[in-house]
Each structure stands twice: as structure tokens, then as C-alpha cells.
Design brief:
single chain, 459 residues
Length: 459
């Protein structure tokens, strides 16, 4: 072992011990961390790769958490942040204080957002954005003289975050079991019952649909329907054609707000600036975060249409909601540069081209491996599933954990992916939007090798 490698190993060992002692990790197994230490300690990144303190380079096939859209080590974003930090790092936006980057970013977002979504309330991230959307929707209806409109319809398998209200809207059971943190007034419906949402009461599972839920609960009690254009952590589930339009029509029919959760889908991830653009749908409110800064600053927001903004603007008292970092000037400066690069470098065009390459790779995996099925991609948001027998829809035994096994095998081969699904059968892929053809081919080759290795363990 070289002196450099020895130093790296020693440094990693020291950091791992400190990590085990002092760091409680999010969305991790705390006992496993204490027993085994962190899975990896990252030290630097460049483009679509990240490097550990041991000098091992990994392809970041998940843009870390669906957010590092422009990749790692982008010097323009770093410089934008550095310049703002040295000029005016932080200001409060309470008591009507403002700052130039926050104002200019609000104007830019209005120019990019669909329809009349011309205003933004800033947050620090996606969970805060969805929490804020729920609060503002209830506040809006109170101002409109309809205080009974307080309930929200959220979909099964949805993921909206982990703050209390957003966690309640999340449709994954583990999040509801954790600490009993739930708000009242969230009711759940089954996703993608298209014919039911169009009004066919004879359609299968009609009683589980959004329309039936509205009829049961009463439209006068429902403030909004919260929906991801494409479900992310719930399984990378792409809606059938016409579904989002049907939900939009439902909201219009029953005077309910359409709340789009664009936290993952926004800023080019799906091959359009926003996920809803794929279906020409204009929501009433839109939660944004993640790709807004490509992860180079903590920033989110809720965009709202002109009618909601005007209604709230007529409220002549202090709105008792806001965050220390709402409209943080450094984060906003980074976001402005991020959006400039997305447009200047035609990043969305690259996403559309690389979607085709990714689909080719997924088709190859499905043709080569009989256990691979349900491959899907929209932009650079993709997934495939692992079944013991796809033809009969037979899942692997619950003790097998197929997605975990393949994701771990990919990690051993220096590719980071994510396992999802109630039966641990889904593998998500969401690389940085700057990825190229050769890098996609390398990802597919590693996945191919990992699946082969997993199949060998079954013999």
C-alpha cells in the first residue's frame, strides 16, 4: 500500500469512528451505522462522479437525492455562491425585508413556470415547500370565506417529504408509523384510476378514486389535491396519458386547488422544465426545490397563481409563517446561475437525447435478463423492476430483497443507485442531467454485471 493510500485509509478510519459516535444519519439504520460505520465518506466530486476519502470513484446514478442536476464540482455555481457570500451572505426576509437575488430569482421563476404561476414563497427545501403549500392553501380558503375547506387528497405511493404535514401526505406506510407525526385532514386515494376520474362509476376500484373520495368527503371540505407529476420515491411511477388532465378537470369541477409537487420533477429532470409540462397542465400551486440549485444551496419554494397571490396580498396583517432562510440571498444567487446554465447549455435537450440512450440500455437489460421487467423512463428519471417470474407477476420471496442486492452489487462496482418499492423490487436511476452517452453505457454495463452476480446467488 502506498503512503498516499495509507494516509487515506487512516483518515477514513478516524472519520468513521467520529461518525459512529456523533452523527445520527437520516433515512438510515442507526444500529447498522454504529456497528459498521458509514457506508462511504465522500470527499469530492466532478461531473457525474463522486470520490470517497479512500480515493474510490463512483458514478452518481441518483444525482445523490435526485437533486444534483448539473453534476458535481461545477465551478460556475461555486463562484456564484462565493461571490454572494462575500457580498451579502444572509438577510432576513421578515418584516418585508428583501434582497436582490431573491427578487430576480422570483422574476425568473415566473418566466419559466407554466400558466399564471407568477409568485413564489421561498423555503429551504422540498418538505418545507409541501408543508407551506398545505398551509397556504388552507389560508387561501379561509380568506375566500370557505374555512371548511381544510382537507387534502393525497395518493397512495406518493412521497411529499418528512415535515409533519408533508409526511402525512406521503403515501408510504413507514412514514406514518414513525413517531405518530400526522396532521388531521389528509385522505388518501389510489393513483391512476383514469376512467374513474373521468366519471365512469362502473370502472374498477371507482370507490378508491379521487372523484369518489371527493363525493364521499364533500367538495366543500377539500382544500386541495396534492400530486407528483411522476411519483419519485414511491417507485418512479409515470401516470397514464390523460391522467393529470383529468385531475385538473376534477379540481375545476369541484373548486379544489391542484397542488403539484415538482420537487423531483422540476428543472429539466423529465425532459421538460417542469413535470407538468409533459401534459400541458397548469396547477394552482407548485412546490419546487432540489434541482432549483442543483444541490449547491438549500432552497425551495411554492409558486402560486395570480388569484391566490392577489387574495393573500389583500390580507392586512402579518402572515405567521416563514423560515429563517426564506429567500436566502446566497442560495438564490446560486439558483439564478443554475437556471442560466440550464438554458445556456441546452441541458434539457441533452436530457431528451440521453433519455433515448437510457431507454436503449434498459431494453437491453430486459432482453438479456428474464427477471428484469417494467422498464420505464421519462427524461432522466427511470426505473426497472425485478421479478422471479415477470410473466406470472411472481415476486421474489420477501427474504431475498432483490433490489437491495442489485443496488449493493452496483455499489461494489462503483455505481450509486437506489432501491424502492414495498416489495423491494424497484431500482431507480436518476443521474445528473449533464451525463453523456458513454457514461450511460458504463452505468448499464455495471447494472448488467450486478444483475448477473445477483442471479448467481440464487442458484
Amino acid at each position: 500500500m502506498t503512503t498516499k493510500n495509507t494516509h487515506q485509509s487512516s483518515k477514513t478510519t478516524k472519520l468513521a469512528e467520529l461518525d459512529k459516535k456523533h452523527f445520527l444519519h437520516p433515512a438510515s439504520n442507526p444500529k447498522a451505522v454504529v456497528d459498521n460505520g458509514p457506508a462511504v465518506i465522500f470527499a469530492e466530486g466532478e461531473g457525474v462522479t463522486v470520490t470517497s476519502t479512500d480515493g474510490i470513484e463512483y458514478i452518481d446514478g441518483m444525482s445523490m437525492l435526485w437533486n444534483v442536476n448539473l453534476g458535481h464540482g461545477n465551478q460556475e455555481l461555486a463562484e456564484a455562491g462565493s461571490h454572494q457570500l462575500s457580498t451579502l451572505a444572509c438577510t432576513s426576509q421578515f418584516k418585508a425585508f428583501s434582497n436582490e437575488p431573491a427578487i430576480l430569482l422570483a422574476e425568473k421563476l415566473a418566466s419559466l413556470a407554466p400558466g399564471d404561476l407568477n409568485s413564489v414563497f421561498y423555503t429551504s427545501g422540498g418538505s418545507e415547500s409541501n408543508d407551506t403549500a398545505i398551509k397556504l392553501a388552507r389560508f387561501y380558503w379561509e380568506l375566500k370565506g370557505k374555512p371548511t375547506k381544510r382537507k387534502f387528497i393525497a395518493l397512495n405511493n406518493a412521497y411529499h417529504g418528512v415535515t409533519v404535514a408533508a409526511q402525512t401526505a406521503t403515501g408510504l406506510s413507514a412514514y406514518h408509523q414513525f413517531s405518530g407525526s400526522n396532521i388531521e385532514g389528509v385522505v388518501r386515494a389510489t393513483a391512476y384510476l383514469l376512467e374513474s376520474e373521468k366519471g365512469d362509476k362502473n370502472a374498477p376500484n371507482y370507490e378508491l378514486s379521487i372523484r369518489a373520495t371527493i363525493e364521499r368527503e364533500g367538495a366543500d371540505s377539500i382544500a386541495g389535491i396534492m400530486i407528483e407529476p411522476i411519483q419519485g420515491a414511491g417507485g418512479v411511477n409515470i401516470p397514464p396519458e390523460g391522467y393529470l388532465q383529468a385531475v385538473r378537470q376534477l379540481c375545476d369541477e369541484f373548486n379544489i386547488l391542484f397542488l403539484a409537487d415538482e420537487v423531483i420533477c422540476g428543472f429539466g429532470r423529465t425532459g421538460k422544465m417542469f413535470g407538468v409540462n409533459n401534459w400541458d397542465v397548469v396547477p394552482d400551486m407548485m412546490s419546487i426545490a432540489k434541482g432549483l440549485t442543483s444541490g449547491y444551496g438549500q432552497l425551495g419554494g411554492v409558486m402560486m397563481n395570480d388569484e391566490i397571490k392577489q387574495t393573500i396580498s389583500n390580507f392586512d396583517a402579518v402572515v405567521p409563517h416563514g423560515f429563517t432562510y426564506s429567500g436566502h440571498p446566497t442560495a438564490c444567487a446560486i439558483a439564478l446561475k443554475n437556471l442560466e446554465i440550464i438554458e445556456r447549455d441546452e441541458i434539457i435537450g441533452n436530457v431528451q437525447n440521453m433519455e433515448l440512450e437510457l431507454k436503449k440500455g434498459l431494453k437491453y437489460l430486459e432482453e438479456k435478463h428474464s427477471i428484469v421487467t417494467n422498464c420505464r423512463a421519462i427524461g432522466l428519471l427511470a426505473a426497472f423492476e425485478l421479478y422471479e417470474d415477470p410473466a406470472s407477476r411472481k415476486l421474489f420471496d420477501p427474504t431475498v430483497f432483490p433490489a437491495n442486492a442489485v443496488v449493493d452489487a452496483c455499489f461494489d462496482r462503483q455505481l450509486i443507485l437506489r432501491a424502492l418499492g414495498a416489495h423491494n423490487q424497484i431500482i431507480a436511476i436518476a443521474p445528473p442531467l449533464i451525463i453523456n452517452k458513454e457514461e450511460i453505457k458504463k452505468m448499464i454495463q455495471i447494472i448488467d454485471d450486478a444483475i448477473t452476480a445477483f442471479k448467481e446467488t440464487l442458484n
